[in-house]
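As a warm-up, study this chain.
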Amino acid sequence: MRFDLNLFRVFDAIYATGSLTRAGELLHLTQPAVSHALGRLRSRFGDPLFRREGRGMVATPRAHALAPGVRQALALLDAGLRAGHDFEPSSAVRRFAVGLREVIEMTMLPGLLTVLRAEAPGVTLASVQFARESVARDLARGQLDLVMDIALPLGPEIHRESLFDDPLCIVMRRDHPLAVAPLAQEDWLAGAHVVVSGRPSGLSLEDAALQRAGLHRQVQLRCQSYASGCAAVATSDLLLALPGRVAREQARRFPLHIAPAPMRLPSFRVQLYWHHSAEDDAGSRWLRDRLRAVADRESADRPSGDEL
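Now compare it with the structure written out below.
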């Protein structure tokens, strides 16, 4: 582990050129510097490695044995050092780990998968669960390449940008009594409701808004995913408030009616996060651009309130 890797470059240059002088020119080193490096190599391997014959240097059997491995190792090292600056999607072989909540995963992954298939068939994507308290650490360590989530209190080493702003809407079964007319606030509040949360208790986004307005509703079911919530709504009189993107996705699976929220509710605002060290990484830039494009495409396809 204490071996000077620069000595391998000297070895490779001497092996390729058969000359200390030409090796120095190739590496922009003086001949004494190349001779000193060769002396260190000889001491390290206990072998002359190169013998002088006429005006050139001839490799020993030990040098011939070392050369292929040294050349391969240097090529891998160079490729790794270029990886952050060179990224050709069509030929890239790379894995990205992206921290996604279920509510974001279900709407973003289909569009992103279409992009990967078309532009970067060698790129693989891992959608990863994460703890919000460890986002900064996971991004800094490279355990996560990107994170998509609501606004988080992270330090200046974490870059962020707003990705999309998704208004909440209300879903109910398609033949629900309230589906025949515009949903009134009093009818919505009087109904039985579903809350989706990974926490066992506490206010949801919409309940916090109701509390601030001095209003209340009856929550009959609390579940962990919007898919489960929509499945429950599709076979009952329950009502569920959820982001519009998720509602439209779930309406393809369940017989749901989607209605605009009958009062002003907070939007589901999603931000994209990455570590400062990935700011200029070409692969990270490419993926961030594609996530923006997928998010923008979904926003452009969003119907107006009357068309929900």
